[in-house]
Description:
Elements: E1 8-10, E2 18-20, E3 30-39, H1 48-62, E4 71-78, E5 82-90, H2 111-131, E6 135-144, H3 155-163, E7 174-181, H4 186-199, E8 203-207, H5 212-232
Parallel strand pairs: 3-4, 3-6, 6-7, 7-8
Antiparallel strand pairs: 1-2, 4-5
Helix pairs in contact: 1-5, 2-3
Amino acid sequence: MPKIGTPETHKLKGNFGYSAVGIKDLGATEYTLVTLVVDRSTSVGGFVKELTEAVKEIVQSCKYSKRADNLLIRIMQFGNDMHEIHGFKLLSQINPADYDNAIQISGSTALYDASTNGIAAAVDYGEKLSAQDFNVNAIVFVLTDGDDNMSVMGPSAVKDAMKQAMVKEKLESMISILIGVNMQDAGTSARLDQFHKDAEFSQFIAIKDASAKSLAKLAQFVSQSISSQSQALGTGGPSQLLTI
């Protein structure tokens, strides 16, 4: 396994940026940037074990992909604020077991702020890679069990961040998927669906419960979506959206 240097830090508008593997450490000529934005608010505490296993399964499944060498994965969590579990990282450098106890339950739900950062970071790093003649696309997943109650920014900031993806061809394509987990309350699901429309996410998925079976099915959907988007790189457009 090649030795990879210390991740580089990058600033974004606002108080929270992102980290990523140095471009000099990349060996392929094209990459799909994968971002998981995971809710860690107190209401997630009842199923954090199942959620952690789902994250581990997503990453483990990606390792079996024919495109494994062309994936860069970033995972962040949010409650009142945001925290990177790790920045954009080569899949070969990730051990899924390192995610044990990584999701630290805390606070409320800064959904809009976290969504904006997840998308803006992919766009910014994608632009940097494109400037060095890499071919790049991206896919972003935002997982939450509730609507926003803490953000400084609103849905329009998420929408604006997404629009930047196609400006000056920073990314060949981007898919953004909002996932509502444990959607027992119809009102919460409806508000998240409205957020998906206002922010112009590519897709909204509502999962009724947070059982191990449901989250395992979610992990399969996410890993298949990642594989599909990565295989679309070079076609000039995004992959076809999948259903769960």
